[in-house]
Amino acid sequence: MSASLLRRGLELLEAPGQGDAPPGLQRERDDPRAAGAARRRKVAQHPGRNKATVKGRVMKSAIEEYHKKKPVNHLTANLKYMLKGRFVANKAITEQVLAQNRGRKSKDQPPKKAAKKKPEGTVFTEEDFRKFEREYFGRP
Fold it and tell me: What residue spans carry the Basic residues bias annotation (predicted)?
């Protein structure tokens, strides 16, 4: 046990008024911490009011505190505000703004769109095939 804890314990057990020595008999200390300790001791001996009591305090309801700090969903009000306006931005400008705000990481990039394949067809018509057949094989 430290000396300060022992001293505090003895002060608590003393009868009030007995522990106070006349100011002339007290030892003076050169240590600046001693002045702070003396001040703390003085405050501990003569408390103005016990701050641990509930008297004079207003009890706060836990439910009211929860409702105060509960997050509010502003989605419907924001949607009404946004849909109320008639101005619609140009799609090219919108894409440009989105591209500027997009990060450089691969997870921030939009997925690549696959190019649409044209249906495979021949450049030659049926008439061209017949003409080729006549020329190559010699049949009419």
Answer: 38-56
